[in-house]
Design goal:
The chain has 217 residues and is of the alpha/beta class. It is 34% helix and 19% strand. The structure holds D-xylitol-5-phosphate (DX5) and zinc ion (ZN).
């Protein structure tokens, strides 16, 4: 598995979701941000919209749940056909059980860490995951500035994965752009969410290709 670029539709025209997703042919996945106005101070969309979108796109869906009580809701997103389901460890009551439930539904299980959440306490849990998401902004909004203070954690996560032979993907999300993607790749990330960088570009498809080239450099 090489570099993967995953556009986030948060900054797309949400009234035309299916066609916005269809504009980007070179993406590997589509990243869908689910926010509940409790875990983060913003509200986006939920299961019914994700189910419809899953039916209208061939791209696999990478759903990022920024919600309270993911233990209750995350398995339903896997059942709805999302290829990857990410929950936040800060909100999960039983992350190991939850990761296993997501896998049992046939999806990739992924766990996210907010900028202030360290990775070391979760060292023994990495083997339960198909992806670890390191947030590089405080979750809740697109278009925020990349937090350089998260880079050592990306490096540390890569070290811990290598130490345990864990083949999970290492994703970064927040402020990823042509200016910041190289730093993330150099630190060990291999999967990149890009929202405003892609959807504010004149040619989103070309931006995906440019981001990929920068990360591979
Ligand atoms: C933020 C979301 C991100 C967001 C990224 O909480 O999780 O996926 O869409 O947007 P940019 O790339 O603009 O920071
Ligand atoms: Zn996200």
């Amino acid at each position: 598995m090489g570099i993967q670029i995953t556009p986030s539709i948060l900054n797309a025209d949400l009234s035309a979701l299916a066609s916005e997703v269809g504009r980007i042919r070179s993406a590997d996945w589509v990243h869908v941000d689910v926010m509940d106005n409790h875990f983060v101070p913003n509200l986006t969309l939920g299961l019914p919209v994700v189910e419809s979108l899953a039916r209208s796109t061939d791209l696999p869906m990478d759903v990022h749940l920024m919600i309270e009580d993911p233990d209750r809701w995350a398995p339903a997103y896997a059942e709805a056909g999302c290829g990857s389901v990410t929950f936040h460890v800060e909100a999960a009551a039983a992350p190991v059980r939850l990761a296993r439930e997501i896998r049992a539904q046939g999806a990739r299980a992924s766990m996210a860490l907010k900028p202030a959440t360290p990775v070391d306490p979760y060292e023994d849990l990495l083997a339960e995951l198909d992806m670890l998401l390191i947030m590089t902004v405080e979750p809740g909004f697109g278009g925020q500035k990349f937090l350089d203070l998260c880079l050592p954690k990306i490096r540390r996560a890569r070290e811990l994965m290598d130490k345990h032979g864990v083949e999970a993907w290492l994703q970064v999300d927040g402020g990823v752009s042509l200016e910041t993607i190289e730093r993330c790749a150099e630190a060990g990330a291999d999967t990149f969410v890009a929202g405003s960088a892609v959807y504010s570009a004149d040619d989103p498809d070309a931006m995906v290709a440019d981001l990929r080239a920068r990360a591979e450099a």
